[in-house]
Write a structure and sequence with these properties.
The structure is a single chain. The chain is an alpha+beta fold and about 550 residues long. The chain folds into three domains: about 150 residues, Alpha-D-Glucose-1,6-Bisphosphate, Chain A, domain 4 (2-Layer Sandwich), CATH 3.30.530; about 140 residues, Glutaredoxin (3-Layer(aba) Sandwich), CATH 3.40.30.10; about 150 residues, no CATH class. Helices cover about 40% and strands about 20% of the residues. The strands form four sheets. The protein has an eight-stranded antiparallel sheet, sandwiched between helices. It has a five-stranded mixed sheet with strand order 9-11-10-12-13, with helices on both faces.
């Protein structure tokens, strides 16, 4: 009796947590199937699913199941299995609760939807959920084996690409063009993992990762391609070195790929020496990481339920259709009352299930947000320490001879701007991909001016902003005059006209205005007029360049 009420309740909380139902989406696949192999595509696909269910249900499915009608199997010794058939639209949905063999009070729910689009095409979707009433034991995300069977049986497509049980081999220039078409497709929803072979290699067995195993693990949820050594050169020619993948590296291209705008880091690259540094026993962990990331992205889409509504929702629609059919056929009040009672009972059970599902989603999202915030705090602290060290070293170098900064070789054109900036500007000047895109299309004759303007920012503007002082300001202004460059505010307010978005960039998840610019020349002739638009990132103490070297559009243009 000496314990407080809070202490007494806290001793009970673990048992409450164990009884709380957690429903977590694990993976979701949405595919399009054509009828090249099957004249009765809809029923053939339903039969494929039924055969898969039958092997896992614990008991043979009832006759109405094989007839394609709605059914429920909840006999003793069976795993809960059910299906619902709708006539308008032609839709068949199924659900299986498969008990985990190793973890008590945990089972895996597979939901399947088959909907006819027309006589020659249907949509197939499959969702896997992890339902836990006991200990929340970690698991490796996966896709039901049913998906592999569907791909093997039919003419199946995802993101406009025909799927097979083998990874996509990129060998020729035509293959590279097809790959780029997939990467750049605005309709693509899935990740594309490209595993590159060693230089000169054309054998998939020489890949740093087992591409075939990786492909099957995420079949229908992400694309896996293997690019040969020679084909990598073609890819580099088409998208540039910073967005390519070669020499046994592995790259993940996220949806919305656009090398003219994207940052290369938005499409993660894993270099071969990083993989080689892993002990062999840990390599599978990296494969699991790739699979886990790809599958988690399939259930993070805000439109998750558009391609596959929850099975409980389909049951409610079916119940409403049964009631309407009975009413139109002249059913008695007693019969209608019984249908209404059953529908309400079903709706109540569905509500409790959906409540657990969405509560679990919110709880998981809250956990992910907390973990992300902690990671951001850790990375920010590390970044601040590195920046402080860098600024200290830069100040020491500048004090050696502030009047004569280190000489840097200037390339003959702007095609090497990205490589050059990586080597000479890191930590002081960030160039966004949009600006690199502007440089690639530039008609400016004095290309050396672009490089000198960037060095101006690195050697004079950044020290002026970080250290301050009249001496730094005077040095900056002197160098501007030597280059014939003037720094002024960008156009603002109504002078943007309808082109305001040209002056706004997304940086670190926020919209930022390119409020300053360096300029030379007053005309708008692209061969002689120079502009460099930027803003100052006070958090990281660096310049961010959002566009160069041409004039952005204004109402006056």
């Amino acid at each position: 009796m000496s314990k407080t009420i809070g202490e007494q309740l806290e001793s009970l909380s673990p048992s409450f947590k164990l009884r709380r139902t957690s429903v977590r989406p694990v993976s979701q696949v949405a595919l399009t199937i054509f009828s090249k192999k099957h004249p009765d595509l809809f029923n053939e696909t339903v039969t494929t699913v039924l055969k898969w269910l039958n092997r896992r249900s614990g008991k043979t499915l009832p006759p109405e199941a094989w007839a394609g009608r709605s059914f429920e199997l909840d006999d003793v010794g069976a795993q809960r299995t059910a299906a619902v058939r709708l006539s308008n639209p032609e839709y068949w949905a199924a659900r299986l609760d498969d008990a985990d063999r190793d973890v008590a009070q945990r089972y895996w729910t597979t939901e399947v939807g088959v909907v006819a689009q027309n006589e020659k095409m249907l949509k197939f979707a499959c969702r896997l959920l992890c339902v836990t009433r006991g200990a929340d034991v970690a698991y490796q995300p996966s896709i039901p084996g049913l998906v592999r069977q569907v791909v093997a049986n039919g003419d199946v497509w995802a993101d406009g690409r025909n799927l097979s049980e083998e990874p996509w081999l990129i060998e020729t220039e035509a293959d590279v063009e097809d790959l780029i078409g997939l990467l750049a497709s605005p309709k693509r929803r899935q990740d594309v993992h490209v595993v590159s072979l060693p230089e000169g290699s054309v054998s998939i067995t020489e890949a740093a990762l087992p591409a075939g195993k990786l492909h099957l693990a995420m079949l229908g949820a992400a694309h896996v391609a293997v690019i040969t050594g020679p084909a990598s050169y073609h890819l580099t020619d088409r998208v540039g070195k910073h967005f390519s993948v070669f020499h046994s590296a592995v790259r993940t291209y996220r949806p919305g790929f656009d090398p003219e705008v994207d940052d290369p880091f938005a499409h993660p690259l894993v270099l071969p020496h990083w993989l080689d540094s892993w002990p062999a026993r840990y390599l599978a962990t990296f494969e699991d990481y790739l699979v886990g990331q790809a599958l988690r992205r399939t259930v993070s889409d805000p439109d998750l339920e558009r391609s596959l509504p929850p099975f409980t929702q389909i049951k409610e629609i079916a119940a409403a259709q049964r009631f309407e059919t009975a009413r139109e056929s002249g059913a008695s009040d007693k019969e209608l009352y019984e249908l209404t009672r059953l529908e309400l009972e079903e709706a109540k059970a569905n509500f409790e299930e959906q409540k657990s599902y969405y509560e679990s989603l919110l709880a998981e999202q809250d956990t992910e947000v907390k973990e992300a915030r902690e990671a951001v705090r850790d990375l920010t602290a590390q970044n601040n320490a590195l920046k402080a060290r860098q600024q200290h070293l830069m100040a020491r170098v500048a004090r050696v001879d502030m009047a004569e900064p280190m000489q840097v070789e200037i390339p003959a054109d702007l095609q090497l701007l990205r490589e050059w900036s990586d080597q000479h500007l890191a930590g002081s000047v960030v160039i966004l991909s949009r600006a690199f895109g502007g440089a690639k299309k530039s008609r400016l004759l004095d290309t050396a001016l672009v490089y000198n303007a960037l060095l101006l920012l690195r050697d004079y503007y950044v020290p002026m902003r970080v250290e301050g002082g009249l001496e730094r300001k005077a040095a900056y202004e002197t160098r501007c005059r030597e280059l014939g460059i003037e720094e002024t505010a960008s156009f603002a307010g109504t002078r943007f006209g309808e082109y305001e978005e040209e002056y706004v960039v997304r940086y670190k998840g926020r919209r930022q205005l390119l409020d300053r610019h360096l300029k030379k020349g007053n005309d708008r002739e692209e061969r002689t007029c120079f502009r460099l638009y930027f803003f100052w990132d006070d958090d990281d103490q660096q310049v961010v360049v959002g566009w160069l070297p041409s004039h952005l559009t204004t109402r006056l243009t």
